[in-house]
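in:
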């Protein structure tokens, strides 16, 4: 909670939302902007009720069958993947690939963010699949220069949109 509060104070002046992963209690205590939960991390309806209507709420989707029209009303976006195998999460589901990513995105009107094993070289394919963004971890945290890697990722995403 203390770390989340610190991050919130750093991000707020830049209008960057703080989204907490999995832990609704932390999101509430830190007054985070939102929460992201996975398929086995709790009930999305309960999370929406606890957070209120103005919080950002995301849900992980690993396969097309997990998209449920009854749930779409309470989420703001879907995190789709893993697109590729990733060492960041050891127990990840079977990767969707870029074709699977595109199939899932085509089944919803909600914004989708691709996740899982993504690097700079993959961003154009992610964009072409229809994702509104890409979540990356190791492409930044494992880089020799994380700031430079972040700028390169952002530039690649902007170039993909051209």
């Amino acid at each position: 909670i203390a770390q989340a509060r610190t991050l919130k104070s750093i991000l707020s002046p830049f209008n960057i939302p703080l989204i907490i992963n999995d832990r609704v209690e932390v999101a509430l205590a830190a007054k985070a902007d939102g929460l992201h939960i996975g398929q086995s991390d709790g009930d999305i309806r309960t999370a929406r009720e606890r957070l209120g209507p103005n919080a950002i709420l995301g849900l992980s989707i690993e396969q097309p069958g997990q998209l449920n029209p009854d749930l779409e009303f309470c989420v703001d976006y879907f995190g789709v993947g893993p697109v590729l195998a990733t060492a960041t999460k050891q127990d990840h589901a079977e990767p969707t690939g870029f074709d699977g990513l595109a199939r899932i995105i085509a089944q919803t009107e909600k914004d989708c963010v691709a996740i899982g094993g993504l690097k700079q070289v993959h961003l154009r394919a992610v964009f072409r699949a229809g994702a509104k963004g890409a979540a990356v971890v190791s492409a930044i945290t494992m880089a020799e220069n994380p700031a430079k890697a972040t700028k390169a990722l952002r530039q690649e995403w902007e170039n993909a949109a051209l």
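note: The CA atoms of residues 34 and 56 lie 4 Å apart.
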